[in-house]
Amino acid sequence: LNKSNRHVIEESLVQLRCHFAWELLFEDIEMPDLENRIFFLFSKQPTGLCEISENQEALESLKEAEDLIQQEHDIQSDVRSLVTWGNYAWLYYHMGRLAEAQAYLDKVENTCMKFAAPSCYRMECPQMDGEEGWALLKCGRKNYERAKACFEKALAEDPENPEFSTGYAITMYRLDSLNMATETSEAFCLQPLKEAIRLNPEDVYIKVLLALKLQDLGQEADGEKYIEEALNNTSSQTYVFRYAGKFYRRKGCLDKALQLLKMAQQATPSSAFLHHQIGLCYKAFTIKIKRAANWQRRGQDRENVHRLVHLAIYEIEKALMLRPTFKFAYIELAVLPWPPCSVGSLLHPVPLPPACAHSLSLCLSLYLSSESTHGQ
């Protein structure tokens, strides 16, 4: 194609609504962990995530998405086709394969004409707002506020849509988790989660999120009912196991928590979240043993505590290798018991992000002060 045609293609590309045009902000974390975190969400919204892959991997991702979309026969499948074709067009453009880019632009144009869209390459509808919301949600916390706005816009047009409701509930849960420091933020996601379950009672992912939120609010017994329902369902087991494991760890059922977390880890071994949760289980075991022994160091109890502390350090350091900006993991290392282990671990050459430095220094100084005072 000549320069004139290339310019026409470029003008068409910027009108598309797809991942390349949505200015997605990826978190500053290691890619294997990001891929684990979007694994479940991709299965719900298969439009392809080209930005996190090399060209060939991106094409394979888009082909997989296209195959899944062809199994659907509704307006949502047409919209997802627009997103996927837009991704194809951008990707082929970046690869210098302009004829193929134009072919996918033609597909987009024909579909927009089918729905009498005001633009040749852009369709405005709740389904497209939902797709943008899912894309933003998949890519991490920097995008959550924009994802929330997209789902709110989609729900304003179609309030009974289970997919939009689910996306909105997950987004609100994630935003609540980022703002746990303020009391008023804790319940913002409660009603959206309940509404999502009303519209899609078989969605086990939403059930485990609601269970964790109820646990946050002191309604653990009610939350456990949702956990049990989710565990009795065979779908989305990896994410059910991971969040059920977190639930039971916080409840103090450590053996059950560890079993569930390790089951989830078999499917996603490079998950920083899972390594961190398993490390917290080992830490909780040490506290349980020391309390049972009235905080006295003796015999086999002392050996077990040392062994568990080393296991906790191993798992939390593994989490930091996978996600170097994992602030809470740094803090957990600082407050692990038995200073010879915990302090030695902190001196390992793991780069410390500036945002973590103050929290880590404060926790470590308070911990060492406590140790010198109480002799523990």
TrEMBL record:
Keyword list, A-Z: Repeat, TPR repeat
Fetch the InterPro entries from UniProt. TPR-like_helical_dom_sf, TPR_rpt
Please provide the Gene Ontology terms (biological process) for this protein: defense response to virus
Source species, domain of life: Eukaryota
Q: Which GO terms describe its molecular function?
A: RNA binding
Tell me a GO cellular component: cytosol
Q: Which family does it belong to?
A: Belongs to the IFIT family.
Protein name, as recorded: Interferon induced protein with tetratricopeptide repeats 3
What is the protein's species of origin?
A: Canis lupus dingo (dingo)
